[in-house]
Amino acid sequence: MQIIRVQTPSAKYDVYAGAGLIDSLRPRIERIAGRLPGRVFVVTSPPIWALWGEPFVASFAEPPVALFLAPGEKHKTMACVEKLARQMARAGADRGSLLIAFGGGIVGDVGGFLAAVFMRGIPYIQAPTTFLAQVDSSVGGKTGVNLPEGKNLVGSFHHPLAVFADTTVLGTLPDRELRAGLMESIKAGIIRDRGLVQYMEKRAPKILARDAKTLEKVIAASIRVKAAVVSRDEREGGLRMILNFGHTLGHAIEQATHYEELLHGEAVGWGMIAALRLAQKRGTITRGQAERLEKLIHLYGPLPALKVRAAKAVAAAGGDKKNIGGVRRFVVPLGIGNAGVIEDVTQAELEDAARYMLSQARGS
Amino acid sequence: MQIIRVQTPSAKYDVYAGAGLIDSLRPRIERIAGRLPGRVFVVTSPPIWALWGEPFVASFAEPPVALFLAPGEKHKTMACVEKLARQMARAGADRGSLLIAFGGGIVGDVGGFLAAVFMRGIPYIQAPTTFLAQVDSSVGGKTGVNLPEGKNLVGSFHHPLAVFADTTVLGTLPDRELRAGLMESIKAGIIRDRGLVQYMEKRAPKILARDAKTLEKVIAASIRVKAAVVSRDEREGGLRMILNFGHTLGHAIEQATHYEELLHGEAVGWGMIAALRLAQKRGTITRGQAERLEKLIHLYGPLPALKVRAAKAVAAAGGDKKNIGGVRRFVVPLGIGNAGVIEDVTQAELEDAARYMLSQARGS
Question: Is B152 a catalytic residue?
Answer without folding.
Answer: no
